[in-house]
Amino acid sequence: MSEKTMKSKQRILKSAKKLFASRGYKSTTIRDIANDVNLNSSLISYHFDGKEGLLKELISELYDSELPALSEVISRPVSNKDEFLVRLEIFMESNIKVGIKNWELVQIITNETYELSKIDGFNAANISSLQAFASFIESAQRVDVIRKEISCLRLADSIYALLVDQIKFWKLNKEHMNHDISKQDVRSKWITETLDIFIYGSIVR
Fold first, then answer.
1. How far is Cα 87 from Cα 93, in angstroms, rounded to an integer?
2. What's the CA gap between 83 and 92, in Å, rounded?
3. Residue 159: closest CA among 67, 91, 110
4. Helix, strand, coil percent content, the chain, rounded in steps of 5
5. Contact (Cβ atoms closer than 8 angstroms) between residue 54 and residue 48
6. Is the pLDDT of residue 1 over 80?
7. How many whole angstroms separate alpha carbon 158 and alpha carbon 175?
8. CA 113 to chain centre
9. 204, 137 in Cβ contact below 8 A?
């Protein structure tokens, strides 16, 4: 693939990401993207096999480049409470940083769940990520850090939901609530408060 073609594809992907996030997937046409980057519509269809191909490429870009590093933090079982809390904080911090960096993609993922569910592997990747997080919490439960009656899957799902909300509404919260999760001090305070609510109530005393 020539350098010119590579640059054209990157421009198309950047435009699609912007328009899908701001207008919505259904409301954005190939012609809209073509006009935005001043290219022929047929060229976009040729490179990406239509709008669904563009969406798939964008999501694959995020999942392939960012998820492996996030998963690594929780890939091994924990042996004690301190290790569990440290690694959990790192995991939450890393998720927020990745989400802010890829904010437009987070908007697409959260707003276009139905369309994304049609893409091979999307649901499986999300389920696998949730199960990996739940397994990490279960490893803490096995060494008597998390109370036995706590559902690790439900706890993992609740924390994930909070993380997604913080990222999704980042700009809104920053503008109207003076709560900018991209700032280290704000992010650290939120993580501490979330751990107080969700984790310390689940830990064996």
1. 10
2. 14
3. 91
4. 75, 0, 25
5. yes
6. no
7. 25
8. 13
9. no
CB 159 within 8 A of CB 194: yes
Tens digit of each residue's pLDDT (9 = 90 or more) over 127-156: 999 999 999 999 999 999 999 999 999 999
What residue segments make up the domains of the chain, in order of their start? Answer: 1-48, 55-200
Report which of 26, 22, 162 is spatially closest to residue 95, judged by C-alpha positions.
Answer: 162
Nearest Cα to 91, choosing from 72, 66, 76, 65? 72
Tokens of 154: 């439900």
| Cα end-to-end span (Å), the chain | 60
The yes/no answer on whether domain 1-48 falls in CATH 1.10.10.60 is: yes
pLDDT above 70 covers a percentage of the chain that reads 99
Partner residues linked to 203 by β-bridges: 146
Could you tell me which of 103, 82, 92 has the C-alpha nearest to residue 170? 103
